[in-house]
Amino acid sequence: MAAVMKYILPASLLLASSAAWNTDVHNQIGFMAEELLTPHAVAVLSQLLEPQYNGSIGRAAAWADGYAHTDEGRFSYQWHWIDAHDYPPERCNLNYTRDCAHGGCVVSAIANQTSILKGCIQDVQTGIFSGGTNLTCSYALKWVSHFLGDIAQPLHASQRAAGGNFFRVKFGNKSTELHAVWDGYIPYLAANVSEPFSNQSIAPFFSNLVSRIRKDQFYEAPYMWTACTDPARSVECATRWATESNQWTCDYVYSRVNQSADLAEDGYAFGAVSIVELQISKAALRLATWLNNLVDGVAVTAGGETSWGKSTISHEQIVLDLTEE
Ligand SMILES: *[C@@H]1O[C@H](CO)[C@@H](O)[C@H](O)[C@H]1NC(C)=O
Ligand SMILES: *[C@@H]1O[C@H](CO)[C@@H](O)[C@H](O)[C@H]1NC(C)=O
Ligand SMILES: *[C@@H]1O[C@H](CO)[C@@H](O)[C@H](O)[C@H]1NC(C)=O
Ligand SMILES: *[C@@H]1O[C@H](CO)[C@@H](O)[C@H](O)[C@H]1NC(C)=O
Ligand SMILES: *[C@@H]1O[C@H](CO)[C@@H](O)[C@H](O)[C@H]1NC(C)=O
Ligand SMILES: *[C@@H]1O[C@H](CO)[C@@H](O)[C@H](O)[C@H]1NC(C)=O
Ligand SMILES: *[C@@H]1O[C@H](CO)[C@@H](O)[C@H](O)[C@H]1NC(C)=O
Ligand SMILES: *[C@@H]1O[C@H](CO)[C@@H](O)[C@H](O)[C@H]1NC(C)=O
Question: Which interval of the chain is the signal sequence (predicted)?
């Protein structure tokens, strides 16, 4: 236990080093979502963004990271993650009421900004404003587009070593932290690129993921990823997404990591590629479905909502694990 406990650091220490998916990966998740939006949603949402984004959610999806590092936006820094009280790989566990920090976390931020965004969409639809002139609304769309990406990154839903930011590892002969490996090194390896992805348009690796979503070419069917995508149940749905991400920290992120090895060479990074592809694809499809539902004003009462990914454990199981302690 002591060995595990020493990694539990206050989340405030995260300030020094954390990012999220690298900013370009956030852009790409946004570009993927754009391809999955209805034309009507594209038309409405493009009116929410300031002119510099030319109506593109992908171009706007990385804004939240920069903003969190400004004096004005510092309050939103902690909205990028939730510190699940887990002990991966031995035990994964996430409880929104217990784990969402005072001042907010990624789950509460999704809920808060989604409800603001709903009003904004109504305002655009009724002609109250257009052209990105209401900043509260532009920020709400930019935050939602960003946080639905963050919540799919396993290390954004885990407290161990402050989301892996203090977990030293080696990657390609370079000393780095586990968080950075998942944010960028693995996506770049997966896409076989040595430069960041474009922040202006979709890159081939991500177009290919969109095709795979459309053709149902993942080991887990994409329709299952959207079982909970009703913006009226935002806390519940975001908690499920975070719980699923948290589970990966037990199932792979910490269970397979070897701090003496080079993760680029010992099979760790290659084994993680399919997880990163899955999590990125889920994020994009959920973002598009969320935004389409908001624009359509559809209250989705999922009929088959108990079907849940086979790589995850159910909320009920987690509750059980807790009770058994
Ligand atoms: C802005 O968006 C429009 C419509 O999607 C597109 O035709 C145009 O090329 C874009 N302009 C820039 C500078 O990206
Ligand atoms: C979650 O945490 C809250 C606050 O600590 C607690 O009251 C509640 O019972 C927990 N829920 C579950 C399912 O364990
Ligand atoms: C919701 O977001 C607004 C900014 O858009 C912020 O002022 C407010 O504190 C947030 N509320 C919560 C509960 O996070
Ligand atoms: C921006 O839109 C929000 C949401 O509809 C609204 O509450 C707010 O008053 C608007 N701000 C301005 C400056 O019009
Ligand atoms: C790491 O360094 C070793 C020895 O210098 C070299 O053989 C190996 O190819 C390097 N690996 C990478 C991924 O650069
Ligand atoms: C990765 O890219 C390099 C250089 O662009 C290329 O030579 C190599 O064949 C690619 N590898 C794979 C597995 O696609
Ligand atoms: C977009 O990418 C270009 C080229 O890498 C870079 O110079 C620019 O700063 C990026 N823009 C933003 C807003 O990050
Ligand atoms: C971890 O990596 C080191 C160095 O490559 C190796 O000697 C060791 O056997 C590995 N440990 C496990 C459990 O695979």
Answer: 1-20
